Amino acid sequence: MRILTSLCLTLFVGFSAIAQQDSLFIKRMSDEIMTNGKAYDLLYELTKKIGGRLAGSPQQQQAAVWGKRNLELLGADRVFLQACKSPNWKRGGTDFAAIVGVQGEARIQPLAALALGNSMGSNGMIEAEVLAVANFDELEKRKDEVKGKIVYFHSAFDETKIQTFRAYGESGAYRRSGASRAAKYGALGIMIHSLSTAPDNAPHTGSMVYDEAYPKIPAVALGPNDAKMLYALAKKSQVKVQLQTYGQFLPDVNDQNVVAELKGSVFPDQYITLGGHLDSWDVNEGAHDDGAGVVHTMEVLRVLKALNYKPKRTIRFVLFANEENGVRGGNEYANQAKLNNENHILALESDEGGFTPRSIGMTASKEAFKKFQSWSSLLKPYGCEVTFGGSGTDIGPLAKVNPSTVIAGLVPDSQRYFDLHHAKTDVFENVNKRELLLGAINIAAIIYLVDQYGVKP
Amino acid sequence: MRILTSLCLTLFVGFSAIAQQDSLFIKRMSDEIMTNGKAYDLLYELTKKIGGRLAGSPQQQQAAVWGKRNLELLGADRVFLQACKSPNWKRGGTDFAAIVGVQGEARIQPLAALALGNSMGSNGMIEAEVLAVANFDELEKRKDEVKGKIVYFHSAFDETKIQTFRAYGESGAYRRSGASRAAKYGALGIMIHSLSTAPDNAPHTGSMVYDEAYPKIPAVALGPNDAKMLYALAKKSQVKVQLQTYGQFLPDVNDQNVVAELKGSVFPDQYITLGGHLDSWDVNEGAHDDGAGVVHTMEVLRVLKALNYKPKRTIRFVLFANEENGVRGGNEYANQAKLNNENHILALESDEGGFTPRSIGMTASKEAFKKFQSWSSLLKPYGCEVTFGGSGTDIGPLAKVNPSTVIAGLVPDSQRYFDLHHAKTDVFENVNKRELLLGAINIAAIIYLVDQYGVKP
């Protein structure tokens, strides 16, 4: 009994000493980031000096050059590029939508509209009656009325969902596949309610995909206020609208992931990846999406170097190419990992904005998750905990080629994200310095803990 | 054993059924608030149609009229006023500060400056050398150098403190008592670093108090960028500055708390108070401080009426007068409670902004706190938990006259609060609708739970 007590005490003291040492190191990282953090200044450069960074734009190339240079300056052991081909979608003009008649009478009322990413131009002005439907179910019920019309999907968020990403998940289906679902029944174009939580009228673009079986009709998102007005009007009256868009694909372009590495001193063949994506949409500065993830990644490298930390495992800092309308960068990263037979133990992405972090979401086995969850107390002073289920679009392909990789994501407070996601309001001014830095602290903490203790239960 | 098991099972099932019923009612409140909430629209009226509301200003009176009318429209059983006298401090002019010489050579460099609330005017332009000190310790060490100078206190926040209210607590001493501490040794005026977290140059005002034993010298807060520049300069060079302010007190004015009530059906003599304060500083719209608390309070009344909730206990919805530079409203509320021998079981204030709520802080006995803490799981879906230690300036006096009252406060995320607190940037545009509504949901939930189950352990 005495021996057992003594053993327990030793274990406990041992564990406490480790926990205390970890707690102290995380505090040092936090102090260094809050005092000397460069994430905010780097974000200023990326958003204000470079700007929007759609794949195929000169800015995306400039951003890659900027990223490579800065990762080198921050003192990575090596920085390299992973070449890929990215799609080259161009908006091609100023999208136009307007109400031009109500119940057969002329009325001109412009609508705030943005063509969805990857959608094709309208080939001139389209004029047609609106068929307004609440959802796909109503579309199917009224499929005989669709032909020759412009379908409006009332894809407004379910505001009662406290986690806005859940509402986005539901409404997102209309942006992604609404066009082909309507084209199947002869629609000439579609309009959706922007995937937005904002009490304003800014339209939000974002990626869509055509089903090759049907005509590639134009697709736009309307500003929330205009969308609600149109929906109410079209539910009780015949409404005629005009629509013109200019989208087109030029040939794929040369693109690249920018990868920095700190070589592991004990387990160099175990890789820990963290990253964000360099590209953005064309209508904004991509400050939260995903400038924040890019500078989070760079800040973690900076703080590890500033504190002269020597990782046990190899840590990769990745600025992914082309997340928004192709995921070509994420796919290439997974391809290379497979080709080189790399053992990735953890991949973490920051792609939900630079808001106050609430948790690190981790997708892992039940046993491994228990271990991660025990780290929650170490994150608590920085406002975070470890929750189950994290991911990121760019690290998804890695999880497919290497199912044992623990996939994780920074989970910031989600209330403001869809106010500005893919809208012109996603600019530097809407990022808060302390909130941004806090994200970097929590990512740095989890990367440090995985580097120290691995991912085995 | 069987009986015990059976008893436990009954208790457990009983508890579960209650918890489920509570969870459902809170969800109904949440859905109602997120769908039909009026807090954001009311805040627009208060900030944009009325504006800044310093005690003694016409706007503070307009706000009281507006508050009373709206609380009546929302269906309170009764709405009444509690008269008080508030101080009538006037800024009196456009505060001025500038560097006018460095090392004896003329140089003109204006400094962003705001006189501190309650500070007296300079009686014309003061020109003097700056004595820059890091803190009170340095002031004491260098007291012989103070006479005839303008003292600058480098009261910048400790940025490493993740909870910004802690940094505010430390730096706040310089705003409150810096002037008299320096006047004691013959200073002609003081300047402080604004109590700000923002990476900008907006000066932040706020309340100060003179020690009657010393001359009432002028006191200003400098914009953070200018303050840092001045501090660095004055540490290595002789710097001369000019300072002019115009503050004065006019005779006290008639003011009032606006109080709405829902009468309890079972324990009408047990009072639950929630509130925020109607007044603000003169330089902004008082949107977060404390428009948010005012409309939180009104929204809770609205949702209880919308769901036809009949409280067991008497619930008071209080819009306090004059928090900022006198706490006359809070004192009067406590006086009336004492005079009328009211039994206040809970008082909760929302006065830390309209940001995403992180917890409800509750100050209570250990035993009572255990009970409150068990409600955390009911708040979790709305992003909150119950934490120990909540308060509010306006409910502090009530706690003094009635020490058994549980004192609570909404604790929103604190990262952005001191970016705009008491600065011109505290305007409606910087309040997020969903974050604001989430605050109301969590307050409503805790008020409902206390109404249902009281505060006894």
Automatic annotation (TrEMBL), chains A, B:
It is found in: Endoplasmic reticulum; Golgi apparatus; Lysosome; Secreted. Residues 257-437 form the Peptidase M28 domain. Residues 1-19 form the signal peptide. InterPro entries: CPQ, Peptidase_M28. Pfam families: Peptidase_M28. Homodimer. The monomeric form is inactive while the homodimer is active. This is Carboxypeptidase Q. It comes from Aquirufa echingensis. The lineage of its organism: Bacteria, Pseudomonadati, Bacteroidota, Cytophagia, Cytophagales.
